[in-house]
User: What shape does this take?
Amino acid sequence: MTRHSRSAPLAALTPTHTGPVSWQRLLKWLHEDGVISAEESERTAQRCSHAESAQPALERLASVGVARASDGAALDVEELTRFLARRAQLEYLRIDPLKVDAGKVADSMSASYAERHKVLPVQVTAAELVVATSEPFVTDWVAEVERQARRSVRRVVASPAAIRRYTAEFFALARSVRAAQKSGGAAGTASFEQLVELGKSGRQLDANDQGVIQVVDWLWQYAFNQRASDIHLEPRREQGVIRFRIDGVLHPVYQVPPGVMNAITARVKLLGRMDVVERRRPQDGRIKTRNPAGEEVEMRLSTLPTAFGEKLVMRIFDPETAVKDLAQLGFTPHDAERWQALVARPHGIILVTGPTGSGKTTTLYSTLRRVATEEVNVSTIEDPIENIDPRLNQTQVQPQLDFGFAEGVRALMRQDPDIIMIGEIRDLETAEMAVQAALTGHLVFSTLHTNDAPSAFTRLMELGVPSYLLGATMLGVLAQRLVRTLCPQCRQPDEQAGTELLAEAVRPWKINKGNYRPFKAVGCVDCRMTGYRGRMGIYELLAVSDAFRAVVHGDTSIAALRKQAVQDGMHPLRLAGAMRAAEGLTTLAEIIAATPPLQ
Ligand SMILES: [Zn+2]
Assistant: This one.
């Protein structure tokens, strides 16, 4: 009771502050209003003054853990934000994306303006525009926005993280809703919000409900727009979660009530010609649709029963893969030339290696498309067929019918092929079939799970392939990784990524420091605040020479194979990646995370 009567007059007496709130100021206010003790204020000031930081005051204090006087609990960023709002005598807002009409608010301000001033419109009515900020004492933007929007601005206070995240989210969302409407969505489109409301009302939604149809269309356009590779629909106890995988990382994009999630899942299953009633067994399906640019996009669907319902994943196949040339895939001119020479050979084995998700299939498809001319028969045996292409004869393995890779190659060989692609070599039988095919005059492509190119030889020998047969058939091995590329909109020259770091990463090699122009990741609306946009391949290409063949024998070592490969012109993965970082296309951190160290 006493604290209540104490804090109100104090706040009113405080001289009006203007400008950004520093952590020192925020700390002082917290103490003045009795939220924290004098000792805690002192202790926090000590800890914060140790290091300079560009972090907003709210996040700075939340990160060092300031203890509340009443119960000793650490104040989190939302509580600190709520306190700041009270101090500024403004409303605190925890932004709920489901309550915001993204299309409408995005029309009231440009993305770049919102980003520059770190403000986010959250509601538009006839008379006013509600704008969230985490700097309630910075008001220089208000007059301009009022003039532009022809409405009075009402400011509310939200945490800096929420403003950053939803600025990226809402403007991206608004763009794709517009794209979806342009590509044929009916006027008066039911919004996600309306559908969510329906779901809450307990009304039974089904796959053919108009709102469900539109939301599924919209979801796809949104995913294409965001360059997502996968859409995850995940049922949970309270709320279903929709997440997109973008550049290899999952981002939550929406939460929906279970009823809405079920209806969306049912709709997608219906379109994928799956059994909508069956919900206790895993199923797969395929869907073809079009992206905002009008290109055909293919998606592979799979469901899995979980504790709270059916989980559905839609994997999106990038239609651009078809037209990407080697440079777009990330090949350097040095390696592009060597790869082209390899794939022009009439017979032998060419392997692509790397972990799952390293882009092996993309490299193989774009290579096969290049070699698949009218004069040759290109046949594949895959698990599963990822991309259907009219130039290729594609077959899917069916293990339940005892039709695996080895049986598949055996069957293919009777089909008079010139070029064969085997999805993966996992066992001796398949490896032997590949060798057999190469020895009888075919060009064979396949993949293998190894860390680098030289290990492909030792792995095949471990499987039981005699070294002399490898010497007779192997043409080359391409090891690869995918790394995120820096967002061209927001990347900044990186003064700190000194040449020592680079030198350290590529030792014992040397990179010409004169060409070193590193950039760092920053984050903007275009890249969802990640600082990265898109991915590129990093390659290590081993081309088998006569000298290399002499090293391939039963007692060989990886070190000996690697040494000869390097002498023949192979750039190891770490080195190839570091060269990309030196060009400012990606970062050294990204390369170090993705590639094995140099030996
Ligand atoms: Zn960016």
